[in-house]
Protein backbone atom coordinates (compact mmCIF):
# COMPACT_ATOMS: atom_id res chain seq x y z
CA UNK A 1 0.00 0.00 0.00
CA UNK A 2 2.70 2.53 0.93
CA UNK A 3 5.59 0.74 -0.72
CA UNK A 4 6.09 -2.05 -3.20
CA UNK A 5 4.96 -5.32 -1.64
CA UNK A 6 7.73 -7.31 -0.02
CA UNK A 7 6.88 -11.01 -0.21
CA UNK A 8 9.64 -12.31 2.01
CA UNK A 9 10.98 -11.21 5.38
CA UNK A 10 14.57 -9.90 5.28
CA UNK A 11 15.55 -12.57 7.81
CA UNK A 12 13.97 -15.90 8.65
CA UNK A 13 12.90 -16.20 12.28
CA UNK A 14 11.38 -19.10 14.24
CA UNK A 15 8.91 -16.63 15.71
CA UNK A 16 6.53 -13.99 14.39
CA UNK A 17 8.43 -11.28 12.53
CA UNK A 18 6.44 -8.62 14.37
CA UNK A 19 8.76 -9.11 17.34
CA UNK A 20 11.71 -8.07 15.16
CA UNK A 21 9.72 -4.97 14.25
CA UNK A 22 9.12 -4.36 17.96
CA UNK A 23 12.86 -4.55 18.67
CA UNK A 24 13.69 -1.99 15.95
CA UNK A 25 10.87 0.23 17.22
CA UNK A 26 12.45 0.06 20.68
CA UNK A 27 15.76 1.13 19.09
CA UNK A 28 13.96 4.11 17.59
CA UNK A 29 12.76 5.17 21.04
CA UNK A 30 16.27 4.72 22.42
CA UNK A 31 17.88 6.76 19.65
CA UNK A 32 15.33 9.54 20.05
CA UNK A 33 17.57 10.37 23.02
CA UNK A 34 19.62 13.16 21.37
CA UNK A 35 16.41 15.15 20.92
CA UNK A 36 14.95 14.53 24.38
CA UNK A 37 15.11 17.07 27.21
CA UNK A 38 16.83 14.60 29.56
CA UNK A 39 19.73 14.44 27.09
CA UNK A 40 19.87 18.05 25.87
CA UNK A 41 19.81 19.38 29.44
CA UNK A 42 23.30 17.98 30.05
CA UNK A 43 24.70 20.32 27.38
CA UNK A 44 23.05 23.54 28.64
CA UNK A 45 25.64 24.56 31.25
CA UNK A 46 28.41 24.03 28.70
CA UNK A 47 26.55 26.23 26.20
CA UNK A 48 26.19 28.92 28.86
CA UNK A 49 29.89 28.77 29.63
CA UNK A 50 31.06 28.76 26.00
CA UNK A 51 28.68 31.30 24.46
CA UNK A 52 28.06 33.41 27.59
CA UNK A 53 24.29 33.25 27.07
CA UNK A 54 21.95 33.43 30.04
CA UNK A 55 19.98 30.37 31.11
CA UNK A 56 16.75 32.22 30.37
CA UNK A 57 17.94 33.04 26.85
CA UNK A 58 18.87 29.46 26.01
CA UNK A 59 15.66 28.18 27.61
CA UNK A 60 13.73 30.61 25.42
CA UNK A 61 15.43 29.35 22.27
CA UNK A 62 14.68 25.78 23.31
CA UNK A 63 11.01 26.45 24.05
CA UNK A 64 10.41 28.31 20.79
CA UNK A 65 12.24 25.64 18.80
CA UNK A 66 10.12 22.95 20.48
CA UNK A 67 6.97 24.91 19.72
CA UNK A 68 7.80 25.26 16.01
CA UNK A 69 8.80 21.59 15.78
CA UNK A 70 5.53 20.56 17.39
CA UNK A 71 3.49 22.62 14.94
CA UNK A 72 5.24 20.95 11.98
CA UNK A 73 5.16 17.40 13.34
CA UNK A 74 1.78 16.56 11.82
CA UNK A 75 3.50 16.70 8.42
CA UNK A 76 5.65 13.71 9.46
CA UNK A 77 2.47 11.79 10.26
CA UNK A 78 1.12 12.45 6.77
CA UNK A 79 4.37 11.26 5.21
CA UNK A 80 4.10 8.05 7.24
CA UNK A 81 0.68 7.30 5.73
CA UNK A 82 1.91 8.06 2.21
CA UNK A 83 5.41 6.56 2.22
CA UNK A 84 5.37 4.01 5.03
CA UNK A 85 7.29 3.75 8.28
CA UNK A 86 10.35 2.09 6.77
CA UNK A 87 11.17 5.00 4.45
CA UNK A 88 10.33 7.75 6.92
CA UNK A 89 12.07 6.04 9.85
CA UNK A 90 15.26 5.59 7.84
CA UNK A 91 15.12 9.23 6.70
CA UNK A 92 14.43 10.45 10.25
CA UNK A 93 17.47 8.54 11.54
CA UNK A 94 19.70 10.07 8.88
CA UNK A 95 18.35 13.57 9.50
CA UNK A 96 18.78 13.21 13.27
CA UNK A 97 22.38 12.09 12.73
CA UNK A 98 23.02 15.14 10.54
CA UNK A 99 21.40 17.26 13.24
CA UNK A 100 23.88 15.89 15.79
CA UNK A 101 26.74 16.86 13.47
CA UNK A 102 25.17 20.31 13.08
CA UNK A 103 25.10 20.77 16.85
CA UNK A 104 28.80 19.94 17.05
CA UNK A 105 29.54 23.08 14.97
CA UNK A 106 27.42 25.62 16.88
CA UNK A 107 28.78 29.17 16.69
CA UNK A 108 25.88 31.37 17.79
CA UNK A 109 22.18 31.73 18.60
CA UNK A 110 20.83 31.13 15.08
CA UNK A 111 22.67 27.83 14.72
CA UNK A 112 21.66 26.90 18.28
CA UNK A 113 17.99 27.59 17.55
CA UNK A 114 18.13 25.52 14.36
CA UNK A 115 19.92 22.77 16.26
CA UNK A 116 17.24 22.71 18.95
CA UNK A 117 14.49 22.78 16.31
CA UNK A 118 15.89 19.82 14.36
CA UNK A 119 16.59 17.85 17.54
CA UNK A 120 12.98 18.26 18.65
CA UNK A 121 11.46 17.60 15.21
CA UNK A 122 13.54 14.56 14.23
CA UNK A 123 14.42 13.30 17.73
CA UNK A 124 11.70 13.88 20.28
CA UNK A 125 9.01 14.10 17.60
CA UNK A 126 9.66 11.79 14.65
CA UNK A 127 11.69 9.06 16.39
CA UNK A 128 8.91 8.57 18.96
CA UNK A 129 5.99 9.02 16.56
CA UNK A 130 7.24 6.41 14.08
CA UNK A 131 7.58 3.36 16.37
CA UNK A 132 4.20 4.12 17.90
CA UNK A 133 2.59 3.97 14.46
CA UNK A 134 4.64 0.96 13.32
CA UNK A 135 4.08 -1.60 16.09
CA UNK A 136 0.25 -1.32 16.02
CA UNK A 137 0.37 -2.32 12.34
CA UNK A 138 1.75 -5.72 13.39
CA UNK A 139 -0.28 -6.48 16.51
CA UNK A 140 -3.94 -6.43 17.44
CA UNK A 141 -4.69 -8.90 20.24
CA UNK A 142 -1.17 -8.54 21.68
CA UNK A 143 -0.77 -4.84 20.95
CA UNK A 144 -0.42 -3.88 24.60
CA UNK A 145 2.31 -6.43 25.23
CA UNK A 146 4.19 -5.42 22.10
CA UNK A 147 4.10 -1.74 23.06
CA UNK A 148 5.30 -2.68 26.55
CA UNK A 149 8.35 -4.42 25.11
CA UNK A 150 8.98 -1.54 22.73
CA UNK A 151 8.88 0.88 25.68
CA UNK A 152 12.06 -0.71 27.06
CA UNK A 153 13.97 1.37 24.52
CA UNK A 154 12.49 4.57 25.90
CA UNK A 155 13.31 3.71 29.51
CA UNK A 156 16.87 2.69 28.62
CA UNK A 157 17.26 5.97 26.75
CA UNK A 158 16.12 8.13 29.66
CA UNK A 159 18.29 6.13 32.08
CA UNK A 160 21.49 6.02 29.99
CA UNK A 161 21.70 9.22 27.96
CA UNK A 162 22.23 11.67 30.86
CA UNK A 163 25.15 9.80 32.52
CA UNK A 164 26.70 8.79 29.18
CA UNK A 165 26.51 12.38 27.97
CA UNK A 166 28.10 13.61 31.18
CA UNK A 167 30.92 11.06 30.83
CA UNK A 168 31.54 11.78 27.14
CA UNK A 169 31.52 15.55 27.61
CA UNK A 170 34.00 15.25 30.47
CA UNK A 171 36.17 12.94 28.34
CA UNK A 172 36.15 14.58 24.91
CA UNK A 173 34.05 17.74 25.09
CA UNK A 174 30.49 18.57 24.12
CA UNK A 175 31.18 19.01 20.41
CA UNK A 176 32.63 15.53 19.94
CA UNK A 177 29.82 14.09 22.07
CA UNK A 178 27.36 15.28 19.43
CA UNK A 179 29.56 13.70 16.75
CA UNK A 180 29.53 10.43 18.70
CA UNK A 181 25.74 10.23 18.71
CA UNK A 182 25.56 11.13 15.02
CA UNK A 183 27.90 8.25 14.20
CA UNK A 184 25.96 5.85 16.43
CA UNK A 185 22.74 6.72 14.61
CA UNK A 186 24.30 6.11 11.21
CA UNK A 187 26.07 2.91 12.22
CA UNK A 188 23.44 1.26 14.43
CA UNK A 189 19.96 2.64 13.90
CA UNK A 190 19.74 3.64 10.24
CA UNK A 191 20.88 0.24 8.85
CA UNK A 192 18.50 -1.55 11.24
CA UNK A 193 15.55 0.53 10.08
CA UNK A 194 16.43 0.15 6.39
CA UNK A 195 17.13 -3.59 6.50
CA UNK A 196 14.62 -4.97 8.99
CA UNK A 197 11.57 -2.69 9.02
CA UNK A 198 8.55 -3.61 6.94
CA UNK A 199 5.43 -1.50 7.17
CA UNK A 200 2.80 -4.21 7.63
CA UNK A 201 2.72 -8.00 8.04
CA UNK A 202 0.89 -8.24 4.72
CA UNK A 203 4.05 -6.89 3.02
CA UNK A 204 5.84 -10.17 3.75
CA UNK A 205 2.86 -12.46 3.36
CA UNK A 206 2.02 -12.69 7.07
CA UNK A 207 -1.09 -11.90 9.05
CA UNK A 208 -1.46 -9.54 11.98
CA UNK A 209 -0.45 -11.18 15.30
CA UNK A 210 1.26 -14.00 13.35
CA UNK A 211 -1.87 -16.04 12.71
CA UNK A 212 -0.90 -19.50 11.46
CA UNK A 213 -3.49 -22.18 10.89
CA UNK A 214 -6.11 -21.70 8.17
CA UNK A 215 -8.97 -22.00 10.65
CA UNK A 216 -7.32 -19.62 13.07
CA UNK A 217 -6.53 -17.21 10.26
CA UNK A 218 -10.13 -17.15 9.18
CA UNK A 219 -11.44 -16.56 12.68
CA UNK A 220 -8.80 -14.01 13.59
CA UNK A 221 -9.08 -12.18 10.28
CA UNK A 222 -12.84 -11.97 10.78
CA UNK A 223 -12.27 -10.68 14.29
CA UNK A 224 -9.91 -7.95 13.08
CA UNK A 225 -12.28 -7.03 10.27
CA UNK A 226 -15.17 -6.61 12.72
CA UNK A 227 -13.36 -5.02 15.64
CA UNK A 228 -10.69 -2.84 14.03
CA UNK A 229 -12.36 -0.33 11.78
CA UNK A 230 -10.12 2.15 10.00
CA UNK A 231 -11.09 5.79 10.41
CA UNK A 232 -9.69 8.59 8.28
CA UNK A 233 -8.33 11.61 10.12
CA UNK A 234 -11.24 13.68 8.79
CA UNK A 235 -13.80 11.26 10.19
CA UNK A 236 -11.96 10.74 13.47
CA UNK A 237 -11.90 14.50 14.05
CA UNK A 238 -15.70 14.55 13.89
CA UNK A 239 -16.00 12.31 16.95
CA UNK A 240 -16.17 13.59 20.50
CA UNK A 241 -13.72 10.94 21.68
CA UNK A 242 -10.97 12.27 19.38
CA UNK A 243 -10.96 15.72 20.95
CA UNK A 244 -11.40 14.58 24.54
CA UNK A 245 -8.58 12.02 24.24
CA UNK A 246 -6.45 14.63 22.48
CA UNK A 247 -6.81 16.85 25.54
CA UNK A 248 -5.93 13.87 27.72
CA UNK A 249 -2.64 13.19 25.92
CA UNK A 250 -1.61 16.84 26.26
CA UNK A 251 -1.89 16.85 30.06
CA UNK A 252 1.05 14.54 30.97
CA UNK A 253 3.26 16.30 28.40
CA UNK A 254 2.58 19.68 29.97
CA UNK A 255 2.54 18.70 33.65
CA UNK A 256 5.45 16.23 33.58
CA UNK A 257 7.70 18.51 31.53
CA UNK A 258 6.99 21.42 33.84
CA UNK A 259 7.74 19.39 36.95
CA UNK A 260 10.85 17.79 35.42
CA UNK A 261 12.23 21.14 34.26
CA UNK A 262 11.82 22.69 37.73
CA UNK A 263 12.36 19.60 39.89
CA UNK A 264 15.82 20.62 41.12
CA UNK A 265 14.47 24.01 42.15
CA UNK A 266 11.47 22.38 43.82
CA UNK A 267 13.69 20.08 45.86
CA UNK A 268 15.95 22.97 46.88
CA UNK A 269 12.90 24.97 47.97
CA UNK A 270 12.02 22.08 50.29
CA UNK A 271 15.55 22.01 51.73
CA UNK A 272 16.58 18.98 49.69
CA UNK A 273 19.52 18.58 47.31
CA UNK A 274 20.14 18.24 43.60
CA UNK A 275 21.11 14.64 44.27
CA UNK A 276 17.64 14.02 45.67
CA UNK A 277 16.10 15.36 42.46
CA UNK A 278 18.37 13.02 40.48
CA UNK A 279 17.23 10.08 42.62
CA UNK A 280 13.59 10.96 41.93
CA UNK A 281 14.21 11.06 38.16
CA UNK A 282 16.06 7.75 38.27
CA UNK A 283 13.29 6.13 40.31
CA UNK A 284 10.75 7.27 37.74
CA UNK A 285 12.61 5.35 35.00
CA UNK A 286 13.38 2.28 37.13
CA UNK A 287 9.87 1.88 38.55
CA UNK A 288 8.15 2.75 35.29
CA UNK A 289 9.96 -0.01 33.40
CA UNK A 290 8.22 -3.07 34.97
CA UNK A 291 4.90 -1.22 35.24
CA UNK A 292 4.73 -1.01 31.43
CA UNK A 293 4.43 -4.81 31.27
CA UNK A 294 1.54 -4.80 33.73
CA UNK A 295 -0.08 -2.03 31.70
CA UNK A 296 0.37 -4.02 28.49
CA UNK A 297 -1.49 -6.91 30.12
CA UNK A 298 -4.29 -4.63 31.33
CA UNK A 299 -4.94 -2.80 28.07
CA UNK A 300 -5.21 -6.11 26.22
CA UNK A 301 -8.05 -7.13 28.57
CA UNK A 302 -9.93 -4.02 29.70
CA UNK A 303 -11.36 -0.95 28.01
CA UNK A 304 -8.50 1.46 27.58
CA UNK A 305 -10.41 4.60 28.61
CA UNK A 306 -10.92 3.23 32.13
CA UNK A 307 -7.20 2.61 32.52
CA UNK A 308 -6.53 6.08 31.13
CA UNK A 309 -8.88 7.54 33.74
CA UNK A 310 -7.03 5.73 36.54
CA UNK A 311 -3.75 7.10 35.19
CA UNK A 312 -4.98 10.64 35.77
CA UNK A 313 -6.25 9.77 39.23
CA UNK A 314 -2.67 8.68 39.91
CA UNK A 315 -1.41 12.01 38.52
CA UNK A 316 -3.58 13.88 41.00
CA UNK A 317 -2.23 11.78 43.88
CA UNK A 318 1.36 12.34 42.70
CA UNK A 319 0.96 16.13 42.53
CA UNK A 320 -0.60 16.22 45.99
CA UNK A 321 2.27 14.11 47.32
CA UNK A 322 4.88 16.37 45.68
CA UNK A 323 3.13 19.34 47.25
CA UNK A 324 3.58 17.76 50.70
CA UNK A 325 7.15 16.41 50.29
CA UNK A 326 9.45 17.65 53.05
CA UNK A 327 12.06 14.88 53.38
CA UNK A 328 14.22 12.58 51.28
CA UNK A 329 11.95 9.67 52.18
CA UNK A 330 8.93 11.63 50.96
CA UNK A 331 10.73 12.48 47.72
CA UNK A 332 11.54 8.80 47.17
CA UNK A 333 7.90 7.82 47.70
CA UNK A 334 6.94 10.49 45.19
CA UNK A 335 9.50 9.14 42.69
CA UNK A 336 8.05 5.64 43.04
CA UNK A 337 4.49 6.85 42.48
CA UNK A 338 5.59 9.05 39.58
CA UNK A 339 7.33 6.06 38.03
CA UNK A 340 4.21 3.93 38.29
CA UNK A 341 2.14 6.62 36.58
CA UNK A 342 4.82 7.02 33.90
CA UNK A 343 4.71 3.29 33.18
CA UNK A 344 0.93 3.41 32.81
CA UNK A 345 0.74 6.46 30.58
CA UNK A 346 3.60 5.40 28.31
CA UNK A 347 1.46 2.50 27.06
CA UNK A 348 -2.08 3.80 27.43
CA UNK A 349 -1.51 7.10 25.61
CA UNK A 350 -0.04 5.26 22.63
CA UNK A 351 -2.44 2.32 22.37
CA UNK A 352 -5.61 4.40 22.56
CA UNK A 353 -5.26 5.74 19.00
CA UNK A 354 -4.96 2.45 17.05
CA UNK A 355 -7.53 0.82 19.35
CA UNK A 356 -10.03 3.61 18.68
CA UNK A 357 -9.34 4.49 15.04
CA UNK A 358 -7.54 1.53 13.42
CA UNK A 359 -4.25 1.12 11.57
CA UNK A 360 -4.92 2.48 8.09
CA UNK A 361 -4.52 6.22 8.79
CA UNK A 362 -2.67 5.95 12.08
CA UNK A 363 0.24 8.11 10.93
CA UNK A 364 -1.96 11.15 10.33
CA UNK A 365 -4.01 10.62 13.49
CA UNK A 366 -1.04 9.89 15.76
CA UNK A 367 0.82 12.78 14.12
CA UNK A 368 -1.82 15.20 15.44
CA UNK A 369 -1.58 13.63 18.90
CA UNK A 370 2.22 13.80 18.87
CA UNK A 371 2.04 17.45 17.81
CA UNK A 372 -0.18 18.24 20.78
CA UNK A 373 2.18 16.37 23.10
CA UNK A 374 5.21 18.29 21.84
CA UNK A 375 3.33 21.58 22.16
CA UNK A 376 2.38 20.62 25.71
CA UNK A 377 6.02 19.92 26.53
CA UNK A 378 6.99 23.29 25.02
CA UNK A 379 4.56 25.20 27.26
CA UNK A 380 5.01 23.02 30.35
CA UNK A 381 7.85 24.87 32.11
CA UNK A 382 6.41 28.35 31.47
CA UNK A 383 3.52 28.48 34.00
CA UNK A 384 5.76 27.03 36.71
CA UNK A 385 8.30 29.80 36.10
CA UNK A 386 5.64 32.52 36.03
CA UNK A 387 4.05 31.35 39.28
CA UNK A 388 7.46 31.00 40.94
CA UNK A 389 8.41 34.56 40.00
CA UNK A 390 5.00 35.85 41.12
CA UNK A 391 4.51 33.94 44.38
CA UNK A 392 8.07 32.97 45.28
CA UNK A 393 7.37 29.24 45.27
CA UNK A 394 5.64 26.32 43.58
CA UNK A 395 2.71 25.57 45.92
CA UNK A 396 0.28 27.72 43.94
CA UNK A 397 1.11 26.25 40.52
CA UNK A 398 0.92 22.70 41.86
CA UNK A 399 -2.54 23.48 43.21
CA UNK A 400 -3.59 24.85 39.80
CA UNK A 401 -2.06 21.88 37.98
CA UNK A 402 -4.27 19.43 39.88
CA UNK A 403 -7.14 20.72 37.77
CA UNK A 404 -5.66 19.42 34.52
CA UNK A 405 -5.48 15.69 35.39
CA UNK A 406 -8.83 16.03 37.20
CA UNK A 407 -10.46 17.28 34.01
CA UNK A 408 -8.58 14.68 31.95
CA UNK A 409 -9.86 11.89 34.21
CA UNK A 410 -13.43 13.01 33.58
CA UNK A 411 -12.81 13.28 29.83
CA UNK A 412 -11.27 9.80 29.73
CA UNK A 413 -14.21 8.30 31.64
CA UNK A 414 -16.77 9.70 29.17
CA UNK A 415 -14.73 8.73 26.08
CA UNK A 416 -15.28 5.06 25.23
CA UNK A 417 -14.26 3.75 21.82
CA UNK A 418 -16.47 5.43 19.19
CA UNK A 419 -18.78 3.24 17.14
CA UNK A 420 -17.74 3.09 13.50
CA UNK A 421 -21.16 1.85 12.40
CA UNK A 422 -23.07 4.47 14.40
CA UNK A 423 -20.89 7.27 13.07
CA UNK A 424 -21.43 6.30 9.43
CA UNK A 425 -25.15 5.75 9.91
CA UNK A 426 -25.46 9.25 11.37
CA UNK A 427 -23.28 10.82 8.65
CA UNK A 428 -24.60 8.84 5.69
TrEMBL record:
CDD domains assigned to the protein according to its UniProt record, in alphabetical order: MFS_YcxA_like
UniProt feature coiled coil, ranges: none
Transmembrane annotation, as ranges: 15-37, 57-76, 147-172, 178-197, 241-264, 276-299, 306-325, 331-352, 372-391, 397-414
Localization in the cell: Cell membrane
Molecular-function GO terms, alphabetical: transmembrane transporter activity
A Pfam family matched in the record: MFS_1
Keyword annotations from UniProtKB, A to Z: Membrane, Transmembrane, Transmembrane helix, Transport
Membrane topology recorded in Swiss-Prot or TrEMBL: Multi-pass membrane protein
Gene Ontology CC terms: plasma membrane
Top-level taxon: Bacteria
Major location (coarse): membrane
All copies of domain Major facilitator superfamily (MFS) profile, residue ranges: 21-420
Protein name: Sugar phosphate permease
Lineage, highest ranks first: Bacteria, Bacillati, Bacillota, Bacilli, Bacillales
